[in-house]
Amino acid sequence: MKLLLIIFIVYLAYRAGKSWIRRNLGTIGRGHEVHPPIDDVMVKDPVCGIYFPRREAVALKHNGQVYLFCSTDCRDRFLEEQQ
Question: Is the model's pTM score more than 0.70?
Answer without folding.
Answer: no
